[in-house]
Amino acid sequence: MTTEDVSQSPFLRACRGEETPRTPVWFMRQAGRSLPEYRALRADTPMLTACRTPDMIREITMQPVRRHGVDAAIFFSDIVVPLAAVGVDVDIVAGTGPVVGQPIRDMAGVEALRDLTPEDVPYITEAVGMLREELGATPLIGFAGAPFTLASYLVEGGPSRTYAKTKALMHGAPDVWHALCGRLAGITASFLKVQIDAGANAVQLFDSWAGALSAADYGMFVAPHSAAVLSAVARPGVPRIHFGVGAGHLLAAMGEVGADVVGVDWRIPLTEAAGLVGDRALQGNLDPTTLFAPEDVLAHEVRRVLAEGKAAKGHIFNLGHGVLPETDADALTKTVEYVHRFSAR
Ligand code: 1CP
Question: Which of the seven top EC classes does this enzyme belong to (predicted)?
Fold first, then answer.
């Protein structure tokens, strides 16, 4: 397959706001926990080891493409992989998520963070290259965590519900906060560039937890750093998707920091989101729990999201957040069939 075939894929066409024969679909967290073949492959391998092993990355990235027939692959990795690669003491603990040995809460901690070079992550370059060959006309989405979401793990030391320590640093020591996010923006941009240089066809910047912020705090403490990342990775033909959970009040701002496509969770209809993001395409926004509903409800909800997506300049069907681990893989396959059938033009 030539690069040209990929550039005309429904996914990349929709990202550019062009007509597509049908609405493209992929799922956040499609690679991983919900698939029995993933659990079997990962059984004896720690998460970060899997993320550093090109053959495993390639196989896990391909599993949902083969099984569900989705319109894009998401690179198997994690938002903490680049942090571990520059020496941060972080692990991914099963059932919890990222856990940081020494949380960063002062300038000395910030200054110990160095930038990432391609030599730090040879396994990323190798795996992306292998995947580009295997995927043919199916696009590969690279990704990274945005400065705020990464900072939340580094400051809290792990997952949080309130982000109290993160916000305390932001408001109590803004110089430390901006220095931290400045370094994280550099690491994130470098990590995304490695993926793009190796052949990723689009990138998604996950600011998963930005929705916890007021619009004012987002504008003052977060937007400049996300903008720095997105402008550093602006490349012709490589769309930038930007997504946060519970971020309906931030959608306009998240578009304006430099996204081509804005991801939307299920709390706000795409019709309303379309009015907030201007000329940008939208990605979303089926509630992930709909995959546990009876088939007629699932079909109805898929039709609703497709109809609402028509308000956008381009629509990529997705969930409003990641696939829940207990999801039946067949419900995902069925959703892809529904999206393709109901949107055929
Ligand atoms: O489709 C895919 O699964 C692709 C790979 C992928 C992605 C895109 C993984 C593998 N992680 C991520 C991104 C990621 N990681 C985000 C942003 C997306 C989102 O909002 O869901 C975040 C916030 C993380 C951090 C993280 N890693 C968590 C969340 C913890 C919390 O704060 O609630 C968890 C549970 C992980 C571990 C992880 N990462 C990926 C997988 C498959 C897993 C599960 C662990 C395992 O299988 O052992």
Answer: lyase
